[in-house]
Q: What sequence folds into this?
């Protein structure tokens, strides 16, 4: 068997020298950016608040367990309201979403030129507002609702 001599031309290298330097420089920039942002972020941090954090956690846990069941009777009303809000919100969302989804779908819309863009606008507009904002708005409306 004839063995070939390995020369510098035959040896496989993962990266070229230029690519290796670029990778090294990218890591250097990343670490430098991390250090700079960490220093800016911690510029006004009051670290002495962390000193008593374990004591604060023990205090909080001690007040949570065992739970005090004396006020459970005052929670049934808000619990029922929460379940009603969640159920009605889900049902209303289904009633609104299903028709809009069919109008926005390319294969089920009655008009690709007029109806579909309007349905997509409704979808995009509703998604642009955070769901937490919607929840806050609807809870305020639900709490202020007075049936006649």
A:
């Amino acid at each position: 068997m004839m063995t070939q001599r390995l020369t510098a031309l035959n040896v496989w290298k993962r990266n070229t020298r230029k690519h290796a330097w670029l990778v090294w420089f990218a890591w250097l920039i990343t670490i430098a950016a991390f250090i700079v942002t960490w220093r800016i972020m911690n510029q006004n941090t009051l670290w002495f608040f962390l000193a008593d954090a374990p004591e604060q956690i023990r205090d909080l846990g001690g007040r949570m367990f065992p739970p005090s069941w004396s006020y459970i009777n005052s929670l049934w009303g808000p619990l029922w309201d929460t379940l009603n809000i969640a159920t009605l919100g889900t049902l209303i969302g289904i009633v609104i979403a299903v028709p809009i989804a069919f109008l926005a779908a390319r294969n089920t819309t009655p008009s690709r030129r007029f109806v579909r863009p309007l349905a997509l606008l409704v979808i995009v507009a509703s998604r642009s507002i955070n769901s937490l904002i919607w929840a806050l708005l609807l809870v305020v409306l639900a709490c202020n609702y007075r049936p006649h």
Remarks:
- The chain has five helices and no strands.
- The first helix runs from residue 17 to 41.
